[in-house]
Amino acid sequence: MVFLPNDRRERSAVAALAGARILPNGYDLAAFAFIVAVAFLALHGVAEMRAPLSGLAAAPLTLDPANLPEYALRTTLRMLAAIVASLVFTFVVATLAAKSRRAETIIIPALDILQSVPVLGFLTFTVAFFMGLFPGSQLGAECASIFAIFTSQAWNMAFSFYQSLRTVPRDLDEVSRGFGLSTWQRFWRLEAPFAAPGLIWNTMMSMSGGWFFVVASEAITVGNTTVQLPGLGSWLALAIDKQDFAAVGWAVLAMGIVILLYDQLLFRPIVAWADKFRFEQTAGQEKPRSWVYSLVRRTRLLKHLTAPFAAIWGRVMLIRLRSRPTMVGRRQGGRRPITRVIDYGWLALIAVVGAWSVWSAVSYLDQTLSWNDVRIAFAGGFVTLVRVVVLIAVASLIWVPLGVWIGLRPAVAERVQPVAQFLAAFPANVLFPVVVIAIVATGANPDIWLSPLMVLGTQWYILFNVIAGASAFPTDLREASSVYRLRSWTWWRRAILPGIFPYYVTGALTASGGSWNASIVAELASWGNTKLEAFGLGSYIAKATEAGDFPRVILGIVVMSVFVTLFNRTLWRPLYVFAERRLRLD
Question: Mind listing the pLDDT tens digit for each residue in 462-503?
């Protein structure tokens, strides 16, 4: 209710004050200029994606530095489209796995298998499908490229969101139920905000991790099909093929500029906004900052233009959908006989489908390959497994302490964030020339010295998740540790390691899956006409893909899926359960 004064001059003053709060200020002008520029670039890039496919042959890829801005725009749009698809996938699939016990029995093993399938494996079977959907248009190849980038981003985000939903503090859940919030309201008022900090850091990692496979997703070669989409990945592939060090340097420079731009304009504002979702009972001493977030908060007209959307979203969050008992509640309350019958039937159906899938794969491979091929694939799988285990252990010893140190200091994290994103995005392909030349010159063993290339792009999953866990570590627990004078190993063992353990498990799990993927490009390195090969499952799949040998591609993917699934079920899943039961912030 508004009371207006009787005096006309006072009414004019009130009207002028109200108008001043609506009229745009300098911050509005800057915000609108940025929005217009982004919209123009996005429309231009989308229009280029819909160009005829014949245009790729008419205007082939060149290493002219003047084309780098256009190529950088095309690559950035593909990665943003893939990250949006990954977010939708995460909110739907990870939530379903966390809320439904029956869905969990399918989704989690499926995610284990999917994260082990290499990007080249997806490209092998999806390029023809997408190009058939859009014949004669670049849009088909663009969709195949975006889908390949999506497969390098989605699994990490889904595992992070699933882990956060399963470790929501019980006292907060009980309070939300006490207030009568429905399932829909609890998700948006409690569960999604609680999972936001970890999901945001994993989204940044996924965005950077997509760069690691951008070469394979833009310079597509499957059998006799070769498509080079304009982008930084295809530029880098061409530069490596032509042994052009200057062009490689230009690509790295352009990549660094793009990473800096989307860090400042996208991720840093989101990190500053999501700081309010930290779970703690006392206010933090330091908060992340963002000049873009501050600029948006100081606008006038932009706030009024977005107010209707905020009001609509507020109404949507008030919708009351039918509540269902959670998995914890069902376990505590027991299961009725009819529920047990349904569960047994569900498990039987899964077992039948799994047995049929295995039988179909074995029958197909038996008709096309010999048992010697199976022996070679499994032998390569064991060698790659040893590499993965050793590299993840070494990366954990290095990055867990550093990640904790960075995450507990927001000011340091603010400066380290773009550097970490650049290092995570740095494609190992750029280092192939140095590694290949060094190995050839020194006569070193490729089976040993090509191995570190596997972890270059995946070790950052551990770092980003540990930073996220340390950043979300409650300030009140840190203060309690200081009061009780916990020092050195006691502080690590009693305070910080239990606090970050669920995040570390997510990071290590996705890092191990990513290392299996990275073995495709790391175990078969090339520089011009010089090629080096390390014996392993990655080189087996890479050679089969390059030759268009689909039976061996399928065999390699199946063997890799078996290794990753068994490894996850033997090690990471028990650690997930331990973190969920013993290390919750209750």
Answer: 888 898 888 878 777 777 777 777 777 888 888 888 888 888
Instruction: State the alpha helices, DSSP H only, in 179-218.
Output: 183-186, 192-212, 214-218
- For helices 245-262 and 68-89, give the axis angle rounded to 10 degrees: 50
Whole-number Å distance between alpha carbons of 355 and 367: 18
The identity of residue 471, as a single letter, is: S
Q: Which two tokens stand for residue 301?
A: 């007209």
Is residue 235 within 8 Å of 429, Cβ to Cβ?
no
Tokens (6 digits) for 134: 């859009």
Distance between CA 144 and CA 147 in Å, rounded? 5
Percent over 70 (pLDDT), the chain: 81
List, for residues 434-461, the tens digit of each pLDDT value: 777 787 778 777 878 777 877 776 788 8
26 sits in the region (left: phi over 0; alpha: psi -120 to 50; else beta) called alpha
Report residue 176 as tokens: 């939300």
Question: Distance between the two ends of the chain, CA-based, in angstroms?
Answer: 43
Residue 235 CA to residue 586 CA, distance in Å, equals 51
E runs forming strands in 365-484: none
pTM, 2 dp: 0.75
CA of 453: how far to CAs of 25, 72, 388, 427, 514, in Å? 51, 25, 11, 10, 12
The per-residue pLDDT for 467 is 87
Q: Which amino acid is at 103?
A: A
Residue 414's alpha-carbon distances to 124, 197, 282, 452, 495, in angstroms, are 40, 14, 21, 28, 24
- Which CB contacts under 8 angstroms, 24+ apart, belong to 14-21? 21/300
Phi first, then psi: give them for residue 446, nearest 5 degrees. -60, -30
The answer to whether 165 touches 92, Cβ cutoff 8 Å, is no
Residue 223 phi/psi, 5-degree rounding, is: 65, -125
Q: How far is CA 501 from CA 8, 493, 582, in A?
A: 66, 11, 10
Which DSSP string corresponds to 402-424? Answer: HHHHHHT-HHHHHHHHHHHHHHH
User: Helices in 263-370 by DSSP H: which ranges?
Assistant: 268-274, 291-297, 301-317, 327-333, 337-368
> Any residues with CB less than 8 A from the CB of 353 and at least 6 apart, and which?
none
Whole-angstrom distance, CA of residue 247 vs CA of residue 235: 8
What single letter denotes the amino acid at residue 245? F
Q: What is the pLDDT of residues 12-56, one digit of tens each?
A: 554 554 555 667 778 888 888 888 888 898 898 888 888 887 777
